[in-house]
Amino acid sequence: MIAYILRRLAYAFPILLGVNLLTFALFFVVNTPDQMARVQLGDKHVTQEAVEQWKAQRGYDKPLFINSNEGQSALTDTIFFEKSLSLFVFDFGKSDEGRAIGADIQQRMWPSLALALPTFIVGISVNIIFALFIIMFRASVFDTAAMVFCVALMSISGVFYIFAGQFFFAKMWHLVPISGYLPGMDAWKFLILPVVIGVVSGIGGGTRLYRSLFLEEASKDYVRTARAKGVSELTVLFRHILPNGLIPILTSVVVVIPSLFMGSLLMESFFGIPGLGSYTLDAIQAQDFAVVRSMVFLGSVLYIVGLILTDISYTLVDPRVRLS
Amino acid sequence: MSELMMVKPVLLWSDVLVYLLLVSIILFFWQLKKNPVAAARWAAVFESRAGLASFVVIVFYLLIALTDSLHFREPLEQLEGQQEVHHSQEVSSVLDLILADLKAQDETTYSEPFAIYSFAKENMQDADGNVYRNFPRLKNAGSHLSSESELAGDIAARAGSAIAVSVLIALALCLLHYRLSGRHYPRVPWLSAYITFSLLLVASVTLLQLGKVYHVFGTDKVGADILYQSIKAVRTGVLIGTLATLLTLPLAVVLGISAGYFKGWVDDVVQYIYTTLSSIPGILLIAASVLLIDVYIETHPEDFNLVAYRADFKFLALCFILGMTSWTGLCRLLRAETLKVSQLDYVQAAHAFGVSHMRVIFRHILPNVMHIILISLVLDFSVFVLAEAVLSYIGVGVDPSMKSWGNMINEARAELSRDPVVWWSVGAAFIMMFILVLAANLFSDRVRDALDPRAR
Amino acid sequence: MALLTVENLSVQLLPGRHDDQPRTLVDNISFTLDSGEILALVGESGSGKSLTSLALMRLLPEVLAISSGAVTLGGDNLFALTENDMNRVRGKRMAMVFQEPQSSLNPVQTVGQQIAEVLNLHHSLSAQQTQQRVVDLLQEVGIPDPQQRAGWYPHQLSGGQKQRVMIAMALACEPELLIADEPTTALDVTIQKQILTLLNELRHKRQLAVLLITHDMGVVSEMADRVAVMRHGKIVEQAPAQDFFHAPKHEYSRMLIHSLPDRSHFLASPTQAALLELTDIKVWFPIRKGILQRVADYTRAVDGISLSIGRGETLALVGESGSGKSTAGRAILGLEALAGGSVSFDGQRIDGLSRTQFLPLRKRIQVIFQDPFSSMNPRMSVREILSEGMVSLGVQVADPEAEMRALLQKVGLEADHLDRYPHEFSGGQRQRLAIARAIAVKPELIICDEPTSALDVSIRLQVLNLLKDLQQELGLSYLFITHDLSIIPHIAHRIAVMKNGKILEQGTAQQVIEQPQHEYTRALLEAVPAMA
Fold it and tell me: Which residues on chain B are in Cβ contact (under 8 Å) with C359?
């Protein structure tokens, strides 16, 4: 087990290196720092001095890969080393506006988590409960109607749920504030609407997926064995189908758990929650490449952690799986 | 006639691709004739009521997208003494000709659906020259009415006659089709197709008829007709849904099948590539890439001498990037399925007959993993249509000059906090999008049921 | 009065949207069963025998429905019970054992939990009593170290042990009736023997009525007191086993009985020069371990086997699952790399050849696979299937069209089948097609990898006869890979018995079958159910 995790971590390194090189290529080679500077400075007729000054302030005036300096600094005193490789030790550096990205992330990941974690947990629970309920009435009119309803829910744009939720709950009925955030216990007032919207917008797809997973289990031979033992329909559902169906469900959601820190771009910006999602969105809209680059790397790290957690979770919930 | 000769056709890259796509869809269904197994599976899709009805809706949207993909530039009026013809900077399409009535009716700012007065007060002068503020009459909507009291009656009369005529036309067309062709295929639930077709026909005729004298869905901030915008946005939606997958499809197919078939180091490399790409959060990859495209466009203005070229370039780039974030899933599925298929006895038999790798892949592997490709094509369609709205909202979507549902939502977003709310622009975009996505979802369900061996 | 009475039972497939008529799959069948008696319900695939058993338990899938009939168990009409009452009958008074022990156990519960579940449903025992009962039951069905194994998950047990657990579960509440649906079909012969013996013992000990559903006439002759033969949903003959085997009345019954090969006739071995010679060949698969995935050890799938096949000769390579027999076949075809040893064909070394170097040999060595449903590309027509090998190996024929039509007739199919697709054929026809595909390139040696084990008994003999006729006509040699000893006298000149990658014994068919030298061979032969 430990050897396995070590090996997986070792495999993760070349992948992160790939991500690192790819983002570096996108941000510094395809687009030169000169171009970035011109876009940032806005004016089409900026002077070359202004560009140089902008680059120097942010350390983008160094060579990309190899400095002509003698000695060790030939490799270290470069954009690649300072801006890209440094990410491996989670040294995110400064944003193009001069703020420390690492500190921003530490501060902003908690509101993100406060929104994403309840949405995630409530969402999965609701979907599983709905799917089980539908399975109880499988191959009936109720089943068909529920599936049509789920497809309709799935076909509605996520933005619509947000508009509708804000309009009715906040604007018309004044049940919750439209947007904003307060740290600490008072946060729930601001979080409840986005959590509900996040859950509702996921019901269609989630319920349908879980229903099909449960249906697949329900058609297996061991379910027939259980019925032949005289187990009642309801007990078959809860004691045999549910535990087996939960295995693919749990292991497939584990991969996103670490990424919950990253927050949701859409929700956070609509509801004014100062998390990493809105942080990223602000950076995108302000074309702050340093922040975007950091978030890309952070996202990849969390995804790979999620992959490893997925494999570990298999061994925990499925007796058939042993890691080697 | 001579005027028609003067128009200058414009061929955008996305036009080329969408017509290539049309040709390949037709070729695909045509080759089914030779393949009874696959033909029977597809027949199951069209023999289900939901499958057929949603297909009719998709074809309707596709036709709108196709007529909107025949572009040209109108000639400008010749100045005296000028020999050569100059063409407008604005690129129009055949659809614009059909919607000419809607397009021409600009107002100055917001107006509600079917309104004959503007949504905002303006300074006006009365007969005596006194300035006062009130809601002005709209220039192009309901100008034939003398007072608002006639409005409801007029709408009802116009809608009634449009519905009556179009119902008759629809009935005649359906009957004709049934006599000529439909009755030879008794297993196909034609009634659901006819009902869907008639509904679409009646709705479009009525909307266009009413649209001649009213703004059926209102107008936006600069007074442009919302109905016109939401119809023009159909092309963007349909194209993003198809091209995003198609542009990266070759990559997914080649890499996925090679990995599963050759195994060994090829497999290692392919797995490395798709794990690396899929580890980057999709929305960030898209955002980053679109920012870079913006930088490219800004620094190379000479390459894009028309707004339409710029928008089209950005659009295709967006499709490609969207595809890049999603091809890894298909690649992974194809790899797994190829691993499975290449262990099957018929592939082993082909090896025993000394059949070359290329032939094994094309004759034995590809046809037997085809269902995965097709299922993912139809499944991804609705995902991309919905994604466009989100991306445009975030500001990394299609070019603002291109009509799209996402852009409509984005523009209207700020106005939702107005009181009373300006809801119609968002509403129209959502309805148009919902119908397409719902049809696509229902259709992809049927396709999956019919093609996926596990679903049976 | 009989324990179980089935009267005029019919089962229908409910019509789909495009079918107007329901299809009758079980047609008006009646039989009875007494305590302590074994009734064998015999039939080939699609005869409706498994549906009958599911109908008795009222466990039919939703698309099927019981359209008429009555079933009485110990005086109670089962079809009149509510679902709740029926649940008190299932598992308590009648229990069932299924064909696939692999998939019939819940993978995430321990076997102890699964047996305890049925006990808790029908009895109120304390936890300790239940546990004790579970251990006793496992002991009774012959699971070694039952105390500990009760806590194991199904995947930790072997196939035979899983079937024993299924039987323990079925017998937990001491039912009056046991329905065993092909209980040994998925198992190796030696294991099959053990399970059948166990069932027989339990039946005597507990005065159990057993409805044994099977397609295997050997199993029937070994086990059954009475026999009912089913075909196309109908019972065509019902008789005591003795009478049935000595004087079958129905023609179909006679055919089934005669499909059991005669063990007293053997083929004389043609003495010819060796065509294929294997010398000490090894196929090893690496096992990787540790952080760096170094090769720590090998799975020795084929571990030094030597054999030779002469022209016009059939060598049967016999072994149970996992013995390495199929891997050996693949190694001869060059589809598996050798870890040692050599393969020569017609005097020429053919191991270690590259893909292109092997190409000329592909024409001379061909293969037929076990599963007729996966051995043909479903997207290709018969014409494409037949011509693929001919084209790729450059077989020169004057008129390919006429050649392919002749081939089809030669294997007993119609010449106009050329434009059909594989799914339009039955299993037996597909296997004929596979034979046609192999002989199309005019090979000298055909590797037959279990070519008949997926087929019904009546078809099996036809395919074997076809292979034998073709051997006579074309002078073919066969390497006949099989687990089924009963068909060997019919087809093989010589036999090699394989276990764990090694050949234990080799000789003429007569020698090996009549005077087996190795203990394992004897065990194998004893395990084959034969006519009493």
Answer: 354
pLDDT (0 to 100) of residue C292: 66
Would you state the torsion angle of the CA atoms of residues A221, A223, A227, A230, taken in this order, to the nearest 10 degrees?
120
Run of H or E residues at C128:
helix C127-140
Look at chain A and count its residues. 324
Min Cα–Cα distance to chain A from C53, Å? 11
Q: Is C112 on the interface with A (CB under 8 A)?
A: no
| Chain C neighbors (3+ CB pairs < 8 Å) | A, B
Could you tell me if A322 lies within 8 Å of chain C, comparing CB atoms?
Answer: no
A2 → chain C, closest CA residue: C291
C295-348 pLDDT per residue, tens: 778 888 899 899 999 988 999 999 888 888 989 998 998 888 888 899 999 888
In this prediction, residues B212-221 reach a mean pLDDT of 82
The answer to whether B47 contacts C367, with C-beta atoms less than 8 Å apart, is no
For position B385, which CATH number holds?
1.10.3720
Interchain CB distance below 8 Å, C117 and A320: no
Check whether residue B254 and residue B323 sit in a common domain.
yes
User: Is it the case that residue B223 has pLDDT exceeding 60?
Assistant: yes
If asked whether residues B269 and B417 sit together in one domain, one would say yes
- Most A CBs within 10 Å: which of B58, B283, B384, B431, as the mutation test of the A interface? B283
B99: in domain? yes
Identify whether residues B318 and B414 lie together within a single domain.
Answer: yes
Stretch C79-89: mean pLDDT: 92
Q: Which of B42, B192, B340, B345 to mutate to test the interface with C (most CBs of C within 10 A)?
A: B345
Q: What is the pTM of this model?
A: 0.88
Contacts of A255 (CB under 8 A, 6+ apart): A303, A306, A307, A309, A310
Contact C118, A230 (CB under 8 A): yes
For residues C237 and C317, membership in a common domain is answered with no
Query: Are residues B413 and B319 part of one domain?
Result: yes
| Band of pLDDT at residue B72, cut at 50, 70 and 90 | confident
Task: Check CB contact under 8 Å for B354 and C359.
Answer: yes
Specify whether the CB–CB gap between B73 and B92 falls below 8 A. yes
* Domain A101-317 CATH assignment equals 1.10.3720.10: yes
For residues B185 and B292, membership in a common domain is answered with: no
pLDDT band at B331 (very low <50, low <70, confident <90, very high): very high
How many other C-beta atoms are found inside a 10 Å radius of the C-beta of residue A70?
A: 7
Q: Is C378–B352 a contact, with Cβ atoms under 8 angstroms apart?
A: no
User: How many independent structural domains does chain B possess?
Assistant: 3
Domain housing C383? 313-328+355-527
Domain extents in chain A? 2-89, 101-317
Task: Give the pair of three-digit tokens for residue B3.
Answer: 């005027």
Is A241 an interface residue toward C (CB < 8 Å)? no
Residues 136-175 of C with CB under 8 A from B: none
What pLDDT does B4 receive?
Answer: 53
Nearest residue in chain B measured CA to CA from C374:
B345
Residues of chain A contacting C122 with CB distance shorter than 8 Å: 230
Chain C 140-159, CB below 8 Å of chain A: which residues?
Answer: 153, 155
Is ipTM beyond 0.95? no
At C532 the pLDDT is 43
Burial class (CB in 10 A: 0-12, 13-18, 19+), C347: exposed
Structure tokens, C281: 């060949």
3-state class (DSSP) for residue C215: coil
CB-CB under 8 Å, B279 with A19: yes
Show which of residues 106-145 on chain A sit within 8 Å of chain B, judged by CB atoms.
none
Residue B92 pLDDT greater than 60, yes or no: yes
For the domain that residue C323 is a member of, what is the CATH number? 3.40.50.300
Domain with B150 in it: 145-211
Looking at residue B221, what DSSP letter applies? T
- The answer to whether position C90 is within a domain reads yes
CA dist A177 and B185 (Å) reads 58
From CA B131, how far away is CA B125, in angstroms rounded? 4
